[in-house]
Amino acid sequence: MSTYRILIVEDSLTMRQLISFALNRIRGARLVEASDGMEGLKKLSMERFDLILTDINMPVMDGLKLVSLIRSDPGYANVPIIVITTEAAQEDRERALALGANDYITKPMQPSKVYEVARRLLNVEQ
């Protein structure tokens, strides 16, 4: 069975729990959490991840800066990134996707939507 290492970067504990609940449905998922972009970068430097989910509005380093830093690392050029945010404006979505995010989910989000997008990006069978 495959193991999927997934990093969740989100400053809200409640949102991290909700995202974790959705992703735990993926067989073989191993979840790691970070509460801001800097902590997320540290975790990325310590181990390899197969999928990254990040909020935009966070203290210390926001999610868009995190996405651009991840995409500037050749080792993470092809790792899927999902942005989950309250920012619903079309220009925010376009900016995140232009920086290298693979998908963009607005809050309030449905756990089933997070699960489906993650499963698709990881190429996981149902």
TrEMBL record:
GO BP field: phosphorelay signal transduction system
Sorted UniProt keywords: Phosphoprotein
* One Pfam family matching this protein: Response_reg
Instruction: Tell me which InterPro entries the record gives.
Output: Bact_response_regulator, CheY-like_superfamily, Sig_transdc_resp-reg_receiver
In the record, 4-aspartylphosphate modifications are located at 55
- Residue span, Response regulatory domain: 5-122
Q: What is this protein called?
A: Response regulator
